[in-house]
Amino acid sequence: MWQNNLKNICSRSVNGHVPINSAEAALLLQGSIQSYIRKVEYLYSLVLHVYSLDLHTLEFITQKRQDQQEKSSIHLDGSDADAIVDDGVAKR
Asked: 27 and 2 in contact (C-beta within 8 Å)?
């Protein structure tokens, strides 16, 4: 695992300097990148999941509003289908 490689490299410190060769640096970098990629992919999947939940919730709320408007006697313009209008004044 790349974390073990990092520990091994750091444990060879000489006078505060860490001797490292290109092959070890490449392996360390590769391991770090793979770890980062896994975290980004996991975050991406979480965002997609939340986004799909939001879409389903939005569709559900929209459908509920449409159902309520269909059942309601009050129209979108504010007029009431059940109101009896006499002399221009609405009575119930």
From this structure: yes
Q: What is the pLDDT of residues 57-91, one digit of tens each?
A: 888 888 888 877 777 666 667 676 666 666 555 55
pLDDT tens per residue, range 43-56? 999 888 888 888 88
How far is residue 66 CA from its own chain's centroid?
A: 27
C-alpha distances in Å from residue 36, one per residue of 23, 40, 42, 43: 20, 6, 10, 11
Distance CA 81, CA 43 (A): 51
Q: Per the structure block, which two tokens stand in for 70?
A: 């269909």
Q: Where are the alpha helices (DSSP H) in 1-92?
A: 2-11, 22-71
Domain ranges of the chain: 1-58
Tell whether pTM > 0.90. Answer: no
